[in-house]
Specification:
Keywords: Cytoplasm, FAD, Flavoprotein, NAD, Nucleotide-binding, Oxidoreductase, Redox-active center. This protein is an alpha/beta fold. The protein has 13 helices and 22 strands.
Length: 473
């Protein structure tokens, strides 16, 4: 029996991996994708962390919890009486699982549609031989001319407090809490911590977030971070900055976290559940890189150049397992770019225009540089800002929190950064990404007609604010 041979074999079926395999197939390559993720019945569940325990399920729970919050606190404003509103956690989790399965099945359908061969199991290197790579694909060994590594990342554990997914939870366990905890602790105020904290806070948990850094959302524009901290505090999220965790103890009835606060005083926090979201680490578990001499860096990430090439000929790597932001859409763009480079095309990823989103309420989204980065770089800039409070559609929605902020070069007016905190920020940011890709000026956005009434008018007005000529504020 001859060994199956492919032009392109992708190890990992997350956003970077499955997209790379599909694009390779579109370009005429005989492509395969290997992924070991299993559903609760042991069947294949491609989509990686994003689909199974990350982006997709978290947004499903955020949507459910937001409906619950609206029913309890905002329906009355619209003349809707909703008394004795209850939450069925099992049904909410069940809906989330259904959304996940729909995405899993959708990827399997896309593989079939694009004639990508799918192997369910772990992918790993066996050997390099005669210009090809022997790769284990589950129970089989196949041959590949090109290998694209898209093995993703894993949640970073707190030293001395490993995940048990019962009391000390990663993003995985945080998505499967069977009942609303009375008290919930979150270590880390990044994207995952704030999103999961928001879900369970809306459902009735008393949430305390402990952050080691002295600043809140340090990667976000300072004015946005300041506004977010104010609004989250108003909602009931307790956020402590500058803390140092000294000990975590688990018991049958919960978790106790000992820490020193920003002033150096010893504190203790007793919670029913503890979510640890202190970042993620590249995943090369079981990849067997030593079999072919694949180079990893000190963090365990696969070393690549600007084109995602590794130190090995015809071996590429994309997504969370390489340098750069750990974002699903960044992985997708790299996957497409690598497939196109293999085909001799000029695939490209512009790291300066990758959007970031935090799906809290209000949402936070941005692209480009922050005001503090421009100051540090000595760039002369102009800033313009417009509040949703002055936007007609936001008033009709009953969601007027936040603002849109533009940063533009003082001389050329080129857009250098756009920062949004407010309703549907995740959707509004796309206009800014397109504008920056085309090297647009703030004046370009200010001169474009935006539909009325729409939230996007706040984007136009913020661009107008660069030259202090807003029309509605």
């Amino acid at each position: 029996m001859s060994t199956k041979q492919f032009d392109v074999v992708v190890i990992g079926g997350g956003p970077g991996g499955y997209i790379a395999a599909i694009r390779a197939a579109q370009l005429g390559f005989n492509a395969a994708c290997i992924d070991e993720w299993k559903n609760d019945k042991g069947g294949p569940a491609p989509g990686g962390t994003c689909t199974n325990v990350g982006c997709i399920p978290s947004k499903a729970l955020l949507q459910s919890s937001e409906h619950f919050e609206h029913a309890n606190h905002h329906f009355a404003d619209h003349g809707i009486a909703a008394d004795n509103v209850r939450i069925d956690i099992a049904k909410m989790i069940g809906r989330k699982d259904t959304v996940v399965k729909q995405n899993n099945d959708g990827i399997l359908y896309l593989f079939k549609k694009n004639k990508v061969t799918f192997f369910h199991g772990r992918g790993s290197f066996v050997a390099a031989k005669d210009g090809l790579y022997e790769v284990k694909a589950g129970e089989e060994v196949i041959l590949a001319k090109h290998v694209i590594l898209a093995t993703g990342s894993n949640a970073r554990q707190l030293p001395g407090a490993p995940f048990d997914e019962e009391n000390i939870l990663s993003n995985d366990g945080a998505l499967r809490i069977p009942a609303v905890p009375k008290k919930l602790g979150v270590i880390g105020s990044g994207v995952i911590g704030l999103e999961m904290g928001s879900v369970w806070r809306r459902l009735g948990a008393e949430v305390t977030v402990l952050e080691g850094l002295p600043t809140f959302l340090g990667a976000v524009d300072e004015s946005v971070a300041k506004e977010a901290a104010k609004l989250f505090k108003k909602q009931g999220l307790k956020i402590e900055l500058g803390v140092k965790i000294t000990e975590v103890k688990t018991a049958k009835d919960g978790v106790t976290v000992a820490y020193t606060d920003a002033k150096g005083a010893e504190q203790s926090l007793a919670v029913d559940k503890l979510i640890v979201s202190i970042g993620r680490v590249p995943n090369t578990i079981g990849l067997n890189p030593e079999a072919v001499g694949l180079k990893l860096d000190e963090r365990g990430a696969i070393v690549v150049d600007d084109e995602c090439k590794t130190n090995l000929p015809n071996v590429w790597a994309v997504g969370d397992v390489v340098r750069g932001p750990m974002l699903a859409h960044k992985a997708e763009e790299e996957g497409v770019a690598v497939a196109e480079r293999i085909a001799g095309q000029h695939g490209h990823v512009n790291f300066n225009t990758i959007p970031w989103v935090i799906y809290t309420s209000p949402e936070i989204a941005w692209v480009g540089r922050t005001e503090q980065q421009l100051k540090a770089d000595g760039v002369a800039y102009k800033a313009g800002q417009f509040p949703f409070l002055a936007n007609g559609r936001a008033r009709a929605l009953g969601d007027t929190q936040g603002f849109v902020k533009f940063l533009a070069d003082a001389k050329t007016d080129e857009i250098l950064g756009v920062h949004i905190i407010g309703p549907f920020a995740s959707e509004l940011i796309s206009e800014a990404v397109v504008a920056m890709e085309f090297k647009a000026s703030a004046e370009d956005i200010a001169r474009i007609c935006h539909a009325h009434p729409s939230l996007s008018e706040a984007t136009k007005e913020a661009a107008l604010a660069i030259d202090k000529r807003t029309l509605n504020f």
